[in-house]
Structures are given as structure tokens and as C-alpha cells.
Amino acid sequence: MMRFKYIPILLTVLSLLALPVAVTQAEELPAPIKAIVARGATIVGPFDAPSGLRGYAARYNGQGIALYLTADGKHVLIGTLFDAQGEDLTRAPLDKLVYEPLAKEMWARMENSTWIADGSDDAPRIVYMFSDPNCPYCNMFWNQARPWVESGKVQVRHIMVGMLRADSAGKSAALLTAKQPEAALKEHEAAGNASKLKALESIPAEVQKQLDANLALMSELGGMATPAIFYLDDNGRLKMQQGVPQAQGLAEIMGPR
User: What kind of fold does domain 113-254 have according to CATH?
Assistant: First the structure.
């Protein structure tokens, strides 16, 4: 089994996404690189490397890995390359060739899912959250987010799922089909345990399809429970917070207060 040193936060998420091979077959891959491909790696693209090495960015089990082909073309090294000053020479090409495209792919999938907005459409920061109406921790995060949402700095998009209780899907459907879903969500979350939200007894087929798609997306992205929170850090890297964040994590998710 291959093991690699470069492991960003979202490996469990990325490992569940299957994307097409990004490298054209116009260039014949060297034999050592082919051997790594035979073990399950997907070559994304080449990049410049020092000292006669030739770099290849690849995905393996969702991880971004760097392959360094030796000058004689007969051997390949896998791992992180540092220079004499201790600078990581591997992070930048992996970010550009592997993680940035994957982040855009995942962000677009969440954007195209079925969600309810909490906050201004003009908010400069977007946070996605897989949310179950019966989830007390989702309610805790809703309360944590109030200063950022009410100041117009953040919009939290609740991707509704139904997984915790028998009536969760019915309650999510009730929110999605409300005349004003945003207002219905706010009323439900603000009430907390006193919420009077009633589950739909019969969920329209189209809404059930949306809920099923949301739950499948959550699973594909590595979310194991609600809330599963996705956001972009200051460097534009996609990250996930599973569960209610602590103070430091909250500041990273929401940005300056």
C-alpha cells in the first residue's frame, strides 16, 4: 500500500469524488510513471522540478501526490520536495493542478444542490451546511452564525437533508415547500426545541428527489453527520467542518466578525 506525506484536510472528501483523467494521451508516459498509474494513480499533469527531475501531479485515493521522475527516466520518487531553505516545492503545483480544480468541482455541485439561504444574497462570504431540521447541533451552529449573518458578512446555505429521525425528511420538505423558505427556516431555528414545524405527511416526488440528491451529495463529499459545513479558507482552499466548530474554527469558517 502506498503512503504519502502531503495530506490536506479534505482528503476524506476528495477520496470520494471520481473525476475523469485530466492528462491527454498525446504524450507517452515514462515506464516508472505508468507503473504508478497501474497501482491506481491518475496523472493530472506535469510540472517543472529542479535538479533534472520531472514532476507529475497525480491523484491517488483522492490525495494529491507528486511524482518525481529521475533524469535517467528509470526511477520515480513520491512525496514532498524541499529546497535548501526548507521551502515546500510540492504544495504549489498540487494546489494548482489537483486541489483547485477539485475544489471548484465540489463547490459547483453544492451551488447546484437544493438549499435555503440564511443571510443576504450580497454577502461576500458563502458557507454551505448540510442540515437536518431535527439536528440540535445544526441549531447550535445557526445561533453561532448570527453575528456574521445579521451583519451581512456571510450567507449560510442550508442544504436540507432528512436523516436523523423518521419525520426529518417531512420537516425538510415542509421548509423547502414553504411560501417563504428563508422565513420558515429562520422561524424554525430561532424557536429551537420549541419549534412547531410540522412534517409533511406526503412529500411531493420532486421534493423527495431533491432530498435524496442532497443526502447522496453529502455522502459523496464525506459528510458523516449533520452539520457538515463546507467553506473556502483565505487561500481559496475548500475545507470541511464536521460538527459544531469551536471558537477558533468558527472564526476560520465565518471570517472576521
Answer: Glutaredoxin (3.40.30)
DSSP state of 194: G
What's the sign of the alpha-carbon dihedral 110, 7, 223, 42? Answer: positive
Domain spans of the chain? Answer: 11-99, 113-254
* One fold for 11-99 and 113-254: no
DSSP string, 65-116: EEEEE-TTSS-EEES--B-TT--BSSHHHHIIIIIHHHHHHHHHHHHTS-EE
- CATH number given to 11-99: 3.10.450.70
State pTM to two decimals: 0.74
46: left (phi over 0), alpha (psi -120 to 50) or beta: beta
pLDDT by residue (tens digit) across 62-81?
A: 678 999 999 999 999 999 99
